[in-house]
Amino acid sequence: MSTAFQPFGMKPAYHPSGLDRSVPFAGTNSFVPGVVYNAPYALSAGQSFYQYTPVAVNSSGQLTIAAQAAGGLGTRVYGVFDGVEYNTAEGRRTVGKSISLTSLAAANSIVFWIFQDPALVYEIQVNGSVPATAIGSEYNFDTTAGSTVADGYTIGNGGAGFSTTALLSTPVATGTQGQVRVVGLGREVAFSGGPGGYPSLNQWGDAYTIVQVQIANSLTIAPSVAV
Fold it and tell me: Are strands 180-185 and 210-215 parallel, antiparallel or unpaired?
C-alpha cells in the first residue's frame, strides 16, 4: 500500500503501442535551441531541471518548468524532462539527468532531451487518496511545498537530480481543463513509511495513491480553444 508520500515526478511507464517500451530513452526527442533568443531555457533563480520534471515551452520558444495549473496558452504541458547535453566553459561535452540554472548559464550548445509523445503513459504519486472511479478524471500538479512542479533533489555534490512533483488529490471540475488525465493504477512499488518500511503493491484508495496518467493539455495536440 502507498502509505508514504514519496513523490518521484512524472516517470514514463510505457507507450500504448508497446514499441521500445523497455528502452530508457524511449519516446524522447531533442529540444534544439533556436536562434531568436539568448538562451534556450527560462528558469528563475535557484531553479533546476530535474529528471521527470514536467516542462513547457514559453512564448519565446524557451524550455521552462510547467505551470502549476492548466489555464491559457502559456500553461500547456510540452512533456517531461529526461536529460541534457552541453559544452562546459572549458569546451568539454557533458551529459546529465538534471541541471541547475547556474550550470546552464555557464554552458553552450545545449540540447535538452524530453519525453514529449502525447500518447506516453506516466506514473505519478498523488498527495492524497484516489479511488478507481478517478479513471478519466483530470488533475493538476500539486501546490504543496516540496512536491510542486519546480521541486526536486540532487544526490551528493553534482550528482543526479530527481523531480518530486506530485498531483493534487482533488480532480478539476467537470468541463475544466486539467493537466493530466488518469488512465489507470500505477504499478510503481510503494513503501510503507518509517524505519524498516517494506515494499508492497500500490492500490486504489491508498493514502498516497500512485496513478498512471497521460498529459491532458499537451502543447502538441490539445486544441488551443480548450485551454
Answer: antiparallel
